[in-house]
């Protein structure tokens, strides 16, 4: 019989030793920080995630503990060009190596290419999935092609309203200079 694992309080070593697998689909509303980024839009959008544990070199004195994570969703963000909602797909496929404590994790993480985390008997897998999805957010979300027409130059309407005359701020300074001499 396979053990049930709690994604909010996961014993990482046991999960890896038993080659555990957890997967679920939850509404976006279960991930507060992602929902904040979406400004409360799309609360029922599904967040799909799965995790698989693996113990490499199990006969070794200190075998490597690995967690393989996949997560995906779509967030409704604000397009930085037209300021209209834009749906942005997010997808994560990451693997993490776990070590005994925080100090080891910190020193090994700097020196290695893989992500290194500290082992825990009550690791929050959903928080890790949310962290990874947050790191996938684009810096400036935007549509491939915006649904509304965008003005091509700043101040076009203002120029037309002035009758086509362009303001010349330095002209007044020039007049002042010529009257002083």
Provide a descriptive summary of the structure in words.
With 181 residues, this protein is α+β, with helices and mostly antiparallel strands. The chain is 28% helix and 29% strand. The chain is built from six helices and five strands; from the N terminus they run αβαβββαβααα. The protein has helices at residues 12-17, 32-37, 102-111, 125-135, 156-161, 169-180, and strands at 21-27, 46-56, 64-78, 85-99, 115-118. Strands 1-2-3-4-5 form a five-stranded mixed β-sheet. It starts with 11 loop residues before the first helix and ends with a helix. The mean pLDDT is 86.
Topology of helices and strands:
Layout: H1 12-17, E1 21-27, H2 32-37, E2 46-56, E3 64-78, E4 85-99, H3 102-111, E5 115-118, H4 125-135, H5 156-161, H6 169-180
Parallel strand pairs: 4-5
Antiparallel strand pairs: 1-2, 2-3, 3-4
In a few lines, what is going on in this structure?
By secondary structure, the chain is α+β, with helices and mostly antiparallel strands.
């Amino acid at each position: 019989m396979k053990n049930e694992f709690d994604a909010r309080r996961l014993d990482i070593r046991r999960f890896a030793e038993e080659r555990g697998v957890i997967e679920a689909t939850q509404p976006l509303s279960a991930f507060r920080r992602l929902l904040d980024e979406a400004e409360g839009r799309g609360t029922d959008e599904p967040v799909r995630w799965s995790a698989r544990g693996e113990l490499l070199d199990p006969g070794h004195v200190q075998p490597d503990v690995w967690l393989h994570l996949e997560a995906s969703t779509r967030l409704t963000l604000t397009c930085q060009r037209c300021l209209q909602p834009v749906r942005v797909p997010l997808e994560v496929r990451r693997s993490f190596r776990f070590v005994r404590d925080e100090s080891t994790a910190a020193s090994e993480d700097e020196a290695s290419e893989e992500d290194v985390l500290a082992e825990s008997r009550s690791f929050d897998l959903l928080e890790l999935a949310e962290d990874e999805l947050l790191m996938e957010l684009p810096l400036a979300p935007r549509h491939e092609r915006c649904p509304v027409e965008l003005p091509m130059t700043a101040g076009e309407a203002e120029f037309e309203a002035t009758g086509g005359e362009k303001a010349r701020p330095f002209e007044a300074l020039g007049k002042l200079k010529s009257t002083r001499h």
